Amino acid sequence: QVQLVESGGGLVQAGDSLRLSCTTPGRAFSTLHMGWFRQAPGKERELVARISWGPKTTQYADAVKDRFTISRDDVKKTLYLQMNSLKPEDTAVYYCVAARQWGATSGWGDYWGQGTQVTVSS
């Protein structure tokens, strides 16, 4: 079992920045693919970004490309999501996710955090 704990959410204005963090007390972090999903009210959960272990290959949703950056620090066992130029449509609960396989994004993720709320006001 992999425990994931998110932090860094909050209420900001459009155009502001936020950085989300996700930590795990386990030793498996460096060999797990990691990512962020989000779910807005009334909408399906969607993958925001993910990063592989090893070569740290990244993948982003079109809606956040050039605004969000995913990164990981394997020594600190921490995943980050730097969110710049935030828009009201970025408002959602953001979930940290860990996966043992890369594969397709649909149904991706073996372990989930509890989520952290991000609210962007216009």
Task: Please explain how this structure is put together.
With 122 residues, this protein is an all-beta fold. The chain has no helices and eleven strands. The strands form two sheets. Strands 2, 4, 5, 6, 9, 10 and 11 form a seven-stranded mixed beta sheet that branches. A hairpin with a 6-residue loop joins strand 5 and strand 6. The radius of gyration is 13 Å and the shape is globular. The mean pLDDT is 95.
Keywords:
mainly beta; seven-stranded mixed β-sheet; 122 residues; globular; four-stranded antiparallel β-sheet
Quantity of strands, as a count = 11
Estimated structural class: mainly beta
- Arithmetic mean pLDDT: 95
3D shape:
globular
Q: Helical percent range?
A: under 10%
Report the major sheet: 7 strands, mixed
Count of discrete alpha- or pi-helical segments spanning 4 or more residues: 0
What is the string of helix and strand elements? Answer: EEEEEEEEEEE
Compute the separation of the termini in Å: 39 Å
Q: From the alpha-carbon coordinates, what is the Rg to the nearest angstrom? A: 13 Å
Unreliable sequence segments: none
Report the sheet-strand fraction.
over 45%
